[in-house]
């Protein structure tokens, strides 16, 4: 059997080649929605008709709650901002929060999980108790408390992004901590780790060279699901009034909050676009995460192979545990 090319082994390409049927449709739909979100966020300054805080044009003020027209394709908000521009610029704010929140969560959660699982003892007990205590709090309530403590509720773009990201990070760190800790406890009992100790490898080398790289296989799945949750948490914070000032950046949750009174008056164009943006991004990222989770399940791989005409022995072999050689562990 020919060895797959480097292009075929790329993460997204590899998963696409593995997927079939409805699973492939879910993955493709998720990639399309997420790709549109990323392109919109990156190209916001060039595709948005106006700035996120612009209230007037060459002909004067835009006017509040103006219906969709040639000048404003999705109308204007109660504050007099262009709805389409606010939605486009809001994608950039959402992307910034996702990147910062997920990066902080991964770094802090992975390091704490690695130290806790490998060292054990009183360090492990203290970290487990703290993580469980944080995990027991309602997610949104904890994020609100953290946002108030960090920024006092509302602030400018970067202080607001950092406040929202840190508040989301506080919620996500226990998840990464628990996943990595359980994997470290399993990996450190393997023979190759004991061999590294016997030959005199330092603790840091064993932890980061041997244990860590074999304990983070499932992190991409958690990252995608947490990215979707980060969007929801950011929108909830903005909707409740703990987000970013409208003159500092566009934020979907804040705009959705300001459109509540418009809905009762029959003004739909101020609420549907930001709400649809939130739903689309969360749906796209969730579809990717769920598809990757299914593709990581050996039982589903066995069904796919059986459906492609492989022998029963191949299908049974696909359900067997992954060996150290398959994982490519470095001793």
Automatic annotation (TrEMBL):
Domain of life where this protein originates: Bacteria
Subcellular localization(s) per the UniProt record: Cell membrane
Keyword Ubl conjugation attached: no
Domain ABC transmembrane type-1: residue ranges: 91-289
GO BP of this protein: transmembrane transport
Membrane-related topology note: Multi-pass membrane protein
InterPro entries: BP-dependent_transpt_permease (IPR050366), MetI-like (IPR000515), MetI-like_sf (IPR035906), OppC_N (IPR025966)
Region described as Disordered: spans on this chain: 304-331
Membrane in keyword set: yes
UniProtKB keywords: Cell membrane, Membrane, Transmembrane, Transmembrane helix, Transport
GO CC, alphabetical: plasma membrane
Transmembrane residue ranges: 26-48, 94-119, 126-150, 156-177, 219-244, 264-289
Assigned protein family: Belongs to the binding-protein-dependent transport system permease family.
Protein name: Glutathione transport system permease protein GsiD
Organism expressing this protein natively: Microbacterium hydrocarbonoxydans
Name of the gene encoding the protein in the UniProt record: gsiD_4
